[in-house]
Inverse folding.
């Protein structure tokens, strides 16, 4: 069975302040459960990409196979998140 990873989700940029109060530098860890405090719209955009990283996959258009950049769908704010694959602790 392939190794399963945790995924760090970090807000790295936006065009204006987030309606949900997220601030640049906020970070969550996607382990076995949905991280608390992240808004549902951003999480829905992030989840498919995070799932690929979590299970060892990568994206050919990214220069680093352990990192993916994803934006939330709020067209006014455009939060940009960096997803980073990290070794899962305790597995």
């Amino acid at each position: 069975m392939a190794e399963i990873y945790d995924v760090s989700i970090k807000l790295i940029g936006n065009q204006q302040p987030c309606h949900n109060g997220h601030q640049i530098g906020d970070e969550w860890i996607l382990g076995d459960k949905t991280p608390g405090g992240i808004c549902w719209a951003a999480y829905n955009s992030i989840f498919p990409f995070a799932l690929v990283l979590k299970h060892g996959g990568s994206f050919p258009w990214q220069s680093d196979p352990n990192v993916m950049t994803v934006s939330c769908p709020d067209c006014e704010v455009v939060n940009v998140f960096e997803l980073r694959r990290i070794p899962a602790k305790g597995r």
